Q: What sequence folds into this?
Protein backbone atom coordinates (compact mmCIF):
# COMPACT_ATOMS: atom_id res chain seq x y z
CA UNK A 1 0.00 0.00 0.00
CA UNK A 2 1.54 3.36 -1.01
CA UNK A 3 1.98 6.00 1.67
CA UNK A 4 0.32 9.41 1.36
CA UNK A 5 3.75 10.88 0.58
CA UNK A 6 4.26 8.43 -2.27
CA UNK A 7 0.80 9.24 -3.63
CA UNK A 8 1.52 13.00 -3.51
CA UNK A 9 4.86 12.38 -5.25
CA UNK A 10 3.18 10.40 -8.03
CA UNK A 11 0.49 13.07 -8.34
CA UNK A 12 3.09 15.82 -8.81
CA UNK A 13 5.03 13.67 -11.25
CA UNK A 14 1.89 13.00 -13.26
CA UNK A 15 0.87 16.65 -13.15
CA UNK A 16 4.20 17.86 -14.52
CA UNK A 17 5.41 15.10 -16.84
CA UNK A 18 2.21 13.73 -18.35
CA UNK A 19 1.37 17.14 -19.78
CA UNK A 20 4.73 17.22 -21.56
CA UNK A 21 4.10 13.83 -23.15
CA UNK A 22 0.56 14.85 -24.03
CA UNK A 23 1.83 17.99 -25.75
CA UNK A 24 4.40 15.96 -27.68
CA UNK A 25 1.76 13.45 -28.77
CA UNK A 26 -0.48 16.29 -29.97
CA UNK A 27 2.41 17.84 -31.89
CA UNK A 28 3.16 14.48 -33.52
CA UNK A 29 -0.48 14.17 -34.62
CA UNK A 30 -0.38 17.64 -36.16
CA UNK A 31 2.92 16.85 -37.88
CA UNK A 32 1.41 13.64 -39.29
CA UNK A 33 -1.55 15.62 -40.60
CA UNK A 34 0.77 18.15 -42.27
CA UNK A 35 2.69 15.28 -43.93
CA UNK A 36 -0.38 13.32 -45.01
CA UNK A 37 -2.28 16.26 -46.53
CA UNK A 38 0.24 18.93 -47.60
CA UNK A 39 -2.17 20.36 -50.20
CA UNK A 40 -4.76 21.15 -47.50
CA UNK A 41 -2.49 23.01 -45.11
CA UNK A 42 -2.72 26.78 -44.81
CA UNK A 43 0.80 27.62 -43.79
CA UNK A 44 1.13 24.80 -41.28
CA UNK A 45 4.51 23.17 -41.26
CA UNK A 46 6.28 20.32 -39.55
CA UNK A 47 7.75 21.20 -36.16
CA UNK A 48 10.78 19.23 -35.07
CA UNK A 49 11.15 18.34 -31.40
CA UNK A 50 14.12 17.42 -29.29
CA UNK A 51 13.47 16.06 -25.83
CA UNK A 52 16.25 15.53 -23.36
CA UNK A 53 15.74 13.71 -20.08
CA UNK A 54 18.11 13.76 -17.11
CA UNK A 55 20.69 11.00 -17.15
CA UNK A 56 20.30 10.63 -13.37
CA UNK A 57 16.90 10.36 -11.73
CA UNK A 58 16.24 13.53 -9.67
CA UNK A 59 14.98 11.26 -6.86
CA UNK A 60 18.50 9.87 -6.48
CA UNK A 61 19.93 13.36 -6.16
CA UNK A 62 17.17 14.33 -3.70
CA UNK A 63 18.04 11.32 -1.56
CA UNK A 64 21.58 12.69 -1.13
CA UNK A 65 20.37 16.15 -0.10
CA UNK A 66 17.43 15.52 2.25
CA UNK A 67 19.54 16.45 5.29
CA UNK A 68 19.71 20.02 3.90
CA UNK A 69 15.92 20.43 4.05
CA UNK A 70 14.38 22.40 6.92
CA UNK A 71 13.67 20.20 9.94
CA UNK A 72 9.92 20.85 9.72
CA UNK A 73 9.74 19.69 6.11
CA UNK A 74 11.84 16.61 6.88
CA UNK A 75 9.47 15.79 9.75
CA UNK A 76 6.42 16.25 7.51
CA UNK A 77 7.91 13.97 4.85
CA UNK A 78 8.73 11.37 7.51
CA UNK A 79 5.16 11.48 8.89
CA UNK A 80 3.40 11.19 5.52
CA UNK A 81 5.89 8.68 4.12
CA UNK A 82 7.45 10.98 1.55
CA UNK A 83 10.99 9.85 2.23
CA UNK A 84 12.60 6.50 1.95
CA UNK A 85 12.51 4.35 -1.12
CA UNK A 86 11.31 6.81 -3.71
CA UNK A 87 12.13 10.41 -2.60
CA UNK A 88 9.79 11.46 -5.40
CA UNK A 89 7.88 14.00 -3.31
CA UNK A 90 11.13 15.34 -1.83
CA UNK A 91 12.53 15.92 -5.33
CA UNK A 92 9.60 18.27 -6.07
CA UNK A 93 9.73 20.12 -2.74
CA UNK A 94 13.46 20.55 -2.39
CA UNK A 95 14.89 23.98 -3.18
CA UNK A 96 18.03 23.78 -1.05
CA UNK A 97 21.25 25.10 -2.57
CA UNK A 98 23.05 21.75 -2.69
CA UNK A 99 20.18 20.05 -4.51
CA UNK A 100 19.62 22.86 -7.00
CA UNK A 101 23.37 23.08 -7.69
CA UNK A 102 23.49 19.33 -8.31
CA UNK A 103 20.51 19.57 -10.67
CA UNK A 104 22.09 22.48 -12.57
CA UNK A 105 25.36 20.56 -12.88
CA UNK A 106 23.47 17.51 -14.12
CA UNK A 107 21.64 19.62 -16.69
CA UNK A 108 24.93 21.12 -17.87
CA UNK A 109 26.63 17.70 -18.16
CA UNK A 110 23.65 16.23 -20.01
CA UNK A 111 23.54 19.20 -22.39
CA UNK A 112 27.27 18.88 -23.07
CA UNK A 113 26.82 15.18 -23.83
CA UNK A 114 23.99 16.05 -26.22
CA UNK A 115 25.80 19.10 -27.60
CA UNK A 116 26.03 17.80 -31.18
CA UNK A 117 22.30 17.06 -31.29
CA UNK A 118 21.44 20.38 -29.64
CA UNK A 119 23.56 22.39 -32.08
CA UNK A 120 22.10 20.49 -35.04
CA UNK A 121 18.58 20.98 -33.71
CA UNK A 122 19.07 24.72 -33.11
CA UNK A 123 20.54 25.19 -36.57
CA UNK A 124 17.53 23.53 -38.19
CA UNK A 125 19.15 20.31 -39.35
CA UNK A 126 16.86 17.31 -39.77
CA UNK A 127 17.41 14.80 -36.98
CA UNK A 128 16.46 11.10 -36.96
CA UNK A 129 13.50 10.18 -34.77
CA UNK A 130 13.41 7.47 -32.12
CA UNK A 131 10.47 6.40 -30.00
CA UNK A 132 10.75 7.36 -26.33
CA UNK A 133 7.22 6.67 -25.11
CA UNK A 134 4.13 5.31 -26.83
CA UNK A 135 3.25 7.77 -29.58
CA UNK A 136 6.03 10.22 -28.77
CA UNK A 137 8.82 10.76 -31.25
CA UNK A 138 12.08 12.26 -30.11
CA UNK A 139 14.78 13.70 -32.31
CA UNK A 140 18.26 12.59 -31.39
A:
Amino acid sequence: MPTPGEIFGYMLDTLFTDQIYGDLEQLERINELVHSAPQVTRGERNIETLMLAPSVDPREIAAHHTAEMPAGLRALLRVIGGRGASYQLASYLMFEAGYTRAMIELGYRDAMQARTALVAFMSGEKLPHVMTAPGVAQAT
